[in-house]
Structure prediction request, 254 residues.
Amino acid sequence: MSEVALVTGASSGIGAELAKAFSADGYELILVARRAERMQELASQLPGVSQVVACDLAREAGSLAQKVAELGVQVDVLVNNAGFGTHGRFAELDAAREVEEVRLNCEALVTLTHAFLPGMLERRRGGVITLASTAGMQPLPYEAVYSATKAFARTFSDALAAELRGSGVTVLCVNPGPVLTEFQLVAGYGTDFLPPVPGKISPEQVARETLAAFKRGRRTLIPGAVIRWYMRLNAPSPMPLKLRVVERMYRPRH
Prediction:
């Protein structure tokens, strides 16, 4: 019987590519996102068994475990990919939207991991993959909430990995850098905006490196050699200097 991977945010971008990668590797899939039609279209292109669950995780994350139980399958790998960002001066952004960002990027992550992890521990196998971001490796002015949520995701994942060492459950945190997806449009950038840092890679490469790192039992990953080395070289820089540089890079142009 094939193992089952549940991928959130599977309707586009990195989530869709992760679904393709896991399906090609022999996993059955549970695709979760708000847009059922997009997921149905994706499922029709995948070689294995794929089931679609439409769910707004910012509001209904607590209901997902029951929806999955009704499918009669167990989740072997949970891929916490769903999330979004916002861009602009924090005081000028919509407060409700900022709170929704925290609920999806942080609260849903905790809710789903807590729902599906006990079964993995009981079976002594499985994995939790969380898509964080290099944005969580330092504060980002004008993406204040987004960078904070991704710092939360990184810290949560790293702590969980330490707790579960030797349990048979792999915990991997993936930190992509510049990747062109629908994220930019949703966040309020232009459709082709990427931060002026080196190392742009495709969603396909993120998915490919993520699956390879998961199979090797890695705890953390920055996909792409160029951005990986850029982040390593940048890490020792004093925080006041980094904040001044990043503020200029992300400052709204209007």
Remarks:
- The domain at 4-250 is CATH 3.40.50.720 (Rossmann fold).
- The CA atoms of residues 7 and 19 lie 7 Å apart.
- The longest helix spans residues 95-123.
- The chain has one domain: 4-250.
